[in-house]
Amino acid sequence: MTAAGCGTIDATTATRPRTVAKSGDYLDVDPDGDLVTRWKAGDESAFESLIRRHEGRVFGLLLRMLGNREDAEDVAQETFISLHRHGHRFRHDARFSTFVYRVAANAALNRRRTLGRKHARIRKLQARQAAGDDLPTAPRNPESALYGAQVQVHVQEALLQLPPDLRAATVLYDIEGLSYREIAAVLEIPEGTVKSRIHRARSALRDGLKGLVSNEKKGEGP
Amino acid sequence: MNCARVRSHLGDHLEGDLDLRFRARVDEHLGRCASCTNELSELRSTVALLRSLSAPQPPAELASEVMRRIGAGEGRTRRSALVIRRVFDPRVAAALAAGLTGFAIFTSVETSWVRSPEAIAVAPTRAVIADQNAIDMWENLPPTLATAKSVQPRLAAIERTAANRFYRPDPRSMVVGFYGRVDPDLQQLDLDGQLDRAKLDPRGFLRQLNEVSEPERRSRIAPLVVRAGRRGDAQIVARRLRDTSHPLASALAAEFDQGRLHPMASPRAIRASY
């Protein structure tokens, strides 16, 4: 299978892994095991550590799913509060990170569904502003920096045009680096469906980014 | 091997997921088909673009803000555990059912009403109705259920309130969410102060109310009735007011009695009662 699944292993883990997570037909050590155990025992600082370990990936997923920082921040907060409220149901039958992604993905899918397309124009504007904010303060090559930011905006807009279920699959796979198996666990769908959604998402993205893809091809040579 | 079959496997080809023999056949086709080769190239560029998206930096205060909200009682606390246990109490089940109905009605209320001053008055009611568990239920609906026709009207109602930035899971921030300048804690303190005064100095309380117009009086009393209902001392306030034999006392006492009877009544029902 692909090596993309390695993305879920946090190399910076400071705790000694102890809890074993069963995920399908393989056994794996959950890097969050100790923190989860401490938190369940009532250590709130362990929960804060769990937030800090996962906030980057959760926020990244939500930003790509929702398209603007404000919604992503709101839903990220709700995700972690929901985790705090329902985390006692986590049974170590998968990695804690999978559980986190599942809660975040469901929250994002529900938020997208409720907001609908009303704020499409606002999101577009915010995405452009965000791209401007992401510019380096003193770019060596302002033109290329601007081009890079514009490319990011186009890619984000193309992502937002995808149906949410396709978007979730491709964001988790291509951006967050989860494996098919992990995505299947997060979205609670069969692996075959994960693959098919990623395939359909990529095809749609390729159509949506036709101009960019062609430009890249020219720029990269044969 | 025809183009359609090759194209259906280009994703696996890109990921190196094809077995060697099949991959050789796909490569053989790609070697003589410019169209499929172009498609593979575009697909590769698309994936490269996706993977080039920069990792966004989460807000610096995300963890501390979450911990603050948890500390304020939004997480899993002893209180919420108590609420869960109470939900399973048959005596409370009926009241909760009424509350959830009220929640559904509230979320379908038009924006024009939400903007009215009475919204502030009934926001604490919603805090009772829309307990965290109810909010969670709507927020964490599985996608399959959320697309069910029966759920769509409720989601549409939540969408309307969400669009107005009024819908926030924290009942207190629901007030703050739209009425940014209103501090819910201060507002609650103010209501508590007025209720305490009604108990300690009912005549003074009534005299003050007597000086304002009828609509103004109603707008002042509405949140007090709701707050007294929540505090559980609406009956005491009503008794203190009746003891004064003030001209206004009887009518107001009846309203406080109503607050006691309907502490979880829907906003629509509360409005209808005035």
Written overview of the protein:
Chain A is built from ten helices and two strands, in the order E-E-H-H-H-H-H-H-H-H-H-H. Chain A is mainly alpha-helical and 222 residues long. Chain A has one domain (17-220): Orthogonal Bundle (Rna Polymerase Sigma Factor, Chain: A), CATH 1.10.1740. Chain A has a two-stranded antiparallel sheet with strand order 1-2. In chain A, strand 1 and strand 2 form a beta hairpin. Chain B is mostly helical and 274 residues long. Chain B has three domains: 3-50, no CATH class; 78-178, no CATH class; 184-272, no CATH class. Chain B has 19 helices and no strands. In chain B, helix 9 runs antiparallel to helix 13 (171-178) and helix 17 packs antiparallel against helix 18 (249-261). Chain B is rod-shaped, with a radius of gyration of 29 Å. The relative contact order of chain B is 0.08. The model of chain B is unreliable at 78-88, 104-136, 161-184 and 261-274 (pLDDT under 50). At the A-B interface, helix 2, helix 3, helix 4, helix 6 and helix 7 of A face helix 2, helix 4, helix 5, helix 10 and helix 12 of B.
Overall pLDDT confidence of chain B = 65
- Whole-Å distance between the termini of chain B? 77 Å
Largest sheet of chain B: none
Helical stretch tally of chain A:
10
The portion of residues assigned to helices of chain A is 55-70%
Going by CATH, the homologous superfamily of chain A would be: RNA polymerase sigma factor, region 2, helix turn helix motif
